[in-house]
Amino acid sequence: MEKELRSTILFNAYKKEVFTTSNGYKSMQKRLRSHWKIQSLKDEITPEKLIGVKLWITAGPREKFTAAEMLWLEMCIISISILKKL
């Protein structure tokens, strides 16, 4: 039950990032695992995949994001900034 209540940190691995959970963030991932649910995103970014994610990390993507991915990320940032103003 407790594990289901933990928030999720999502590491992007779809754009051939320089750093991943197994290369570059391995020790940080091990420390965070006790309090957070750690996942790697190896598919295209969609709204469904970001549901419940508290932190999305992409570190040095080597490929460009698609227009749809950029639009979705922009909408997320706008909605967060609106919520902070309330």
TrEMBL record:
GO BP, sorted A to Z: cilium assembly; intraciliary transport
Top-level taxon in the UniProt lineage? Eukaryota
Gene Ontology cellular-component terms listed: centriole; cilium; intraciliary transport particle B
IFT52 GIFT domain residues? 8-73
Q: Matching InterPro entries, A to Z?
A: IFT52, IFT52_GIFT
Name of the protein in its database record: IFT52 GIFT domain-containing protein
